[in-house]
Each structure stands twice: as structure tokens, then as C-alpha cells.
Amino acid sequence: MKNLAFVSLPLVALTLAAAMPARAQSDIVTLVNTDTKAVAEYWTAERFKAATPLPMPLATDSNSKVEPSAPTGKVESADGQAPLLNVLPAEQQLFTPDPQVQRSGGGLLEPGAVGTLGAHFTSTRVFPMFTGSATPFSADRAYPHTTVGKLFFTIGRQDYVCSASVIQRRIVATAGHCVHSGTKAGFYSNWVFVPSFRDGTAPFLRWNWRAATVTSTWASGGGTVPNAADYAMIEFSDQPISPEGRPVRLGDITGWLGWQTLSLAANHTSKLGYPCNLDNCMKMQNVMSGAFRSGGSNTVQYGSDAAGGSSGGPWVQNFQTLQVGGGTGSNTGSNRVVGVTSYGYVSPAPKVQGASILDSRWVSLFNFLCGRVAGNCN
Known about the structure:
The protein has 378 residues and is mainly beta. It is 9% helix and 28% strand. The protein is built from 5 helices and 22 strands. It has helices spanning 36-42, 45-50, 216-219, 250-254, 360-372, and strands at 23-25, 28-32, 52-53, 58-59, 77-78, 92-93, 122-125, 148-155, 158-166, 171-174, 189-195, 201-202, 207-215, 232-236, 258-260, 268-273, 285-296, 299-303, 314-317, 336-340, 344-345, 352-356. The strands form 4 sheets. Strands 5, 7, 15, 16, 17, 18, 19, 20 and 22 form a 9-stranded mixed sheet that branches. A 6-stranded antiparallel barrel has the order 8-9-10-14-13-11. The radius of gyration is 19 Å and the shape is globular.
């Protein structure tokens, strides 16, 4: 492993969790990892490379067009934070991807960025992306992009990928269906998070899970969508960034996004992640669009061309580095997650995705993991 250069800051000592099976607490279902070493040993280059996108849950009713209702209740929020450690990325190669076929754009008619439902969007690879000595100056190596990454995990004997984002020092948010089946089959396993993943590399290391939690709304929902709370949070273990270094926390290196509840129905978001229909999920993507319509069951739909692999990626309001004179609107909270990718449609033609509106169940997950081990959050 290549060493990562950094400037050290004081750290809070962590308490190792005791062995614990999956358990329910109020609206929370939790699984604790008692063997992080086994997770690290499981993920070989071959398994990283063979991991496939988790099929996105698919809705079938794409006919009714219902305008989203205004959010109700108290809005709760938390601010994001730029990295606290000045870390230079080291391009640790997890695996070597197969060469991609580059399609020439000459003479081809590109479809408009809108599907059959009329939900407009703008979809782009995150840019600029440099290589060689200029790689550290790439957009995906700078905050707030560093908070977004690829999530690897196992279901049975098959390895999969989703997308996810850092929302506190040790806490990552993703979709409930990337963590738990939504049925009696229960939790999946072997979660590893790779922030700023690109072309098989881990510039800010790979991180092993320590605890996973979902809402009972998702865990008991039968795995169907739309679901009122298809989101999850995972706690990740600390690790040294040099052979002789002391352990540091994930969010101290990547920074973290903020979040805001009851803010999805009337908003504009950047939907980030690694959809495998775009760049073969080897590069971070950003789909930007505004709220289109209600999806029912406490969900909202936005225009998007992302498919499998994008599940769990953050929907971020005001995704930005604030410029001089900016931040003058009425909803100015920047870099705040207001949803995560939950579902699409059986047919790719509508080109919309849905997400659950974050509410008190999101806050319960967050508060639970923040209080589970000292130092998980501020």
C-alpha cells in the first residue's frame, strides 16, 4: 500500500464493539461486525473486479403523473465538513479493469436528456479528471466529491456494487436495499467503501464496515418499491494511512456531506454515484435535475439516466464550492443530502429515479450510529 501524506490532528480513542447479532431498536435494525480482518482478507483483486451492479429495485406504475406535495413537519439538518486532514491521494490499485470500448460521437444522433415522462435532466461524468502527475488536481479528488464512493458487498456467494456517501466521521449513507434484503433473508455482508473510486483505484484507501443499520420500514417492507424509508447507514472502522501511523477516521480524510430532512419534494439535486450504464461504473457521475413528481409512499421522482450501480448514491442540494456572492437563495444549505437513489422503472424509457423523503427515521439512524461508539460523529 502506498503511504498517504497527511497533517495529524488529535483523535478520539475508539471503543471496540462487542459481538452482537442483528437486532431491532424502535425503527432501527442493526448488524455489528465482529471480524473486520475477515472482511479485509475476503476482498481480493479478483473479487473487486468481478463485483456486479446490484439490480436497482424497479417500479411498474409509470402512467400517473402526480405533482409532488410540499414537505410538512419540522425540517432537521446537519452541516457538512471539508477534510480535516490534509491528505494527498495515493492511487492504490484494487484491480485492473478491462479496456473499455470508446464510442465515437461523430455522425451519431444523441437522444435528448429527457425520457418519455418528460422529466428533464443533465447527466455528466464528473470533470475534469486528470491522469498521471496531474491526478491529484482532478475534481473527483477534491471535496465535496471525495465524500462519494463505491460500495462493495456480498449477497450469498455473489459480490455487488452500489454507491454511497460519507455523512460523518465514520458514517456512510446508502440505500436500504444495498444493505438488507427487506425480507427475512436479512442483512448482506462484507461491505467495503472506496471513496473517490476511479478505474479500479482507491485514492483514499478502502474502508471496512463495523456496523450496519436500516429502518424497520425497509427491513419489513418485502423488498418492494417505492418504500417510505429505503436508506441505510454504515459505520466504518478506522485505519492508519501509513504503516507506522496511528488509525484515522474516514471522514477526517474525505470530509463529509451534510443532510436535510423533508426537503426532497421541491428541490434541485445533484445525484452522484457509479451507475454501470455510464462509463461501466468506473468513473463518478453527476446527474442534475429538479423534482418532477411524487412517486407515492413518501418518495419523489427526478429525471435521471442512471441505472444499476447508482443505488444508494446521494441526492445533494446545492452541491458546490461556494463562490463570492453566492448562497443568497431561501434554501442555502450547501452540500446536504436530501435523498439517496432508491428505484427506477422496469422500462428504461421514462428516465426517472425515485428516492425516499428523509424524515425522522433518517434522524433516528443517524443519532443511533453517532451514539454507538465515541468519535463516530463530532
